[in-house]
Write a structure and sequence with these properties.
Blueprint: E1 2-6, H1 15-25, E2 31-36, E3 39-42, H2 46-50, E4 59-65, H3 69-80
Antiparallel strand pairs: 1-4, 2-3, 2-4
Main location: cytoplasm
Keywords: Cytoplasm, Phosphotransferase system, Sugar transport, Transport
Subcellular location: Cytoplasm
Length: about 80
Amino acid sequence: MEKEFTIINPAGIHARPANAIMDKAITFTCRITLQKDAKTANAKSMVSLLKLGAKMGDTVTVITDGEDELEALAAVGEIIQSSID
């Protein structure tokens, strides 16, 4: 499954949002990938998420594959569209 989300956090995906995404992602068994332009990131790796360089207003595609992919897609998307400091 995949779905696009727009980042609304003024600071983009920096340390705290990346940590929140990772913490949520590791609770799921499926593979979760974030894609921005030609870059991809493993949602279960904070370093990988930070390397995306995602900023406010960017569109990120969340791709999930596995047993609990629907729940994972919704949970990670919710964090991306939040404004965690």
